[in-house]
TrEMBL record:
<protein>
    <submittedName>
        <fullName>Peptide chain release factor 2</fullName>
    </submittedName>
</protein>
<dbReference type="InterPro" id="IPR000352">
    <property type="entry name" value="Pep_chain_release_fac_I"/>
</dbReference>
<dbReference type="InterPro" id="IPR005139">
    <property type="entry name" value="PCRF"/>
</dbReference>
<dbReference type="Pfam" id="PF03462">
    <property type="entry name" value="PCRF"/>
</dbReference>
<feature type="domain" description="Prokaryotic-type class I peptide chain release factors">
    <location>
        <begin position="201"/>
        <end position="217"/>
    </location>
</feature>
<keyword id="KW-0488">Methylation</keyword>
<dbReference type="Pfam" id="PF00472">
    <property type="entry name" value="RF-1"/>
</dbReference>
<comment type="similarity">
    <text>Belongs to the prokaryotic/mitochondrial release factor family.</text>
</comment>
<dbReference type="GO" id="GO:0003747">
    <property type="term" value="F:translation release factor activity"/>
</dbReference>
<dbReference type="GO" id="GO:0005737">
    <property type="term" value="C:cytoplasm"/>
</dbReference>
<dbReference type="InterPro" id="IPR045853">
    <property type="entry name" value="Pep_chain_release_fac_I_sf"/>
</dbReference>
Amino acid sequence: MEDDAEKAKSLLSERSRVSAVLTSFRVLEKEHKDLAELAEMISDSDDRDFLATINAELQSLKLRISQKKTECMFSHEADANSCFLTIRSGAGGTESSDWVCMLLRMYTKWAESFHKFTVETVDSVDGEETGLKAVTVKICGIGAYGWARTESGIHRLVRISPFDHAAKRHTSFASVEVSPVVDHEIDIKILEKDLRIDTYRASGAGGQHVNKTESAVRKFSCYPHFWLILSVI
């Protein structure tokens, strides 16, 4: 019964996601049809302001259609999820802390204005003088992880520092890490072929017994990007 409930929850979540995607495509289709009809009606009009408005609406529609085409190419299983985005300052001191703030403002505006996502601050650490040493935000919306995941990595800024009276050029670094929001209940399956078990003799008290018995066990579990090591002594 519990498995059935989990499957039903997963199917309902997937249904909601697909329904939202289909609705967005229908909205774009209707807007395209309305603009085409309007453009045909005013094809002989000399009203420049009205024509400029129609052209602006058309450019906006083209941009949103382009976004949907990009989303259709998302291939990661978590691309449709919301995501956590963490920015940490690197080398550069005050400059790097200010760089973190600049990146935060950029990603917030990108998410809220460009994609209509919502952004919530989860945690932040203030810099020593100004800016932030680290900040984590949650970007909520369908496809947030798919759009943001390629931002993971080291970001560098080279500029004339506003904090340096000598007006020298400074280089600042900040790391960005993006991870998807997933369900609290995650089913992790470890296959036997991915296990490697080593046995060896334990150290410490125990006299001759520890020298004759391999009582220590180390288990390695291989995941796609890392090794999980469990030792039992």
